[in-house]
Amino acid sequence: MDVDALLEVQPELLARLVLHRRERLAEAIPDQLDARREELEAAKGLASSAKRQRDQFSETIASLKAERNAYHAKARAAFERVEALREGMEGKDVVRTPDPAWARERLNARLNAIEEAMQQTAGDHRTEANFISEMRTLVSEHEAWVASRTEKASDHLAMSEARKEAHAMLDAAQKAHEAMLLVVEDHQQQHQNFLEQDQGLRRADSRTRRLAVALDESEQAIAYWTGVVAATLDADHPLLNAMQKVAAGGNSSFVSSKPKEEEE
After folding, report:
1. What are the tens digits of pLDDT across the range 20-54?
2. What is the pLDDT of residue 46?
3. Where are the domains of the chain?
4. Exposed (0-12), middle (13-18) or buried (19+): which is 59, by Cβ within 10 Å?
5. pTM of the entire structure?
6. Which residues of 115-143 are buried (b: 16+ CB within 10 A; e: fewer)?
């Protein structure tokens, strides 16, 4: 439509056309807004679920890390006991086996010799009692000897137990660490999923807000143009002013004029 044809359109008709366009737009927006709100609620659910799963992986990682560190601390404490025992054993006569096989064999040989002598001797009950007493004495002496050697070997046994504990704690720490690494890999994937769902949520929220703003602006425009249509246009009304300005050869209020570039 050229300028002359546009100027022939009466302001009242133009106001009605603008009102009609705003009404059609306002009729179309609610359905779109409802769809966007449904999309927003779905995006909220997906983002919330992704965040919850990611946080669960984070808690599992933190728990396994704390478990690993606790096992490491116990292993260090056990190794420190080993070192303390080793330092305390320096210069001592350390016995590795309190009851060695050779000592038991010697005891059995002596007991067998006494029993054989008792069977070959035709003695009375007193003589037999002496043999039995001698056997009991040998056994008691052997037990006392083993007990004394056990006291000397206690530090060695304690050190061995501490070393076993340290290795067991290191094994447990390694298992916890390996389990943590597996969870870390899953956590990274879940975190990426959360970022994608969160981005989708932001897009849905932005679209919903824009439509809500557009609906509000359309309702305000409808109220305004309804009043314009209902009222009698006076000479000072913006529509008449714009029409008169264009008729006089000027630009409408919607045309942006750029300043001319200065000549060099």
Report:
1. 888 888 888 888 888 999 999 999 999 999 999 99
2. 92
3. 3-247
4. exposed
5. 0.51
6. eeebeeeeeeeeeeeebeeebeebeeebe
Q: Say whether pLDDT at 179 is over 70.
A: yes
Amino acid letter, residue 36:
R
Task: At 50, list the tokens.
Answer: 């992704």
84: region left, alpha or beta (phi > 0 left; psi from -120 to 50 alpha)? alpha
pLDDT value of residue 21? 84
Q: Report yes or no: 204 and 120 within 8 Å, Cβ to Cβ.
A: no
Return the higher-pLDDT residue of 56 and 99. 56
Tokens of residue 101, six digits = 């096989």
Contacts 24+ apart (CB under 8 A), 220-224: 221/18, 221/22, 222/19, 222/22, 222/23, 222/26
The residue written with tokens 């000027």 in the block is: 250
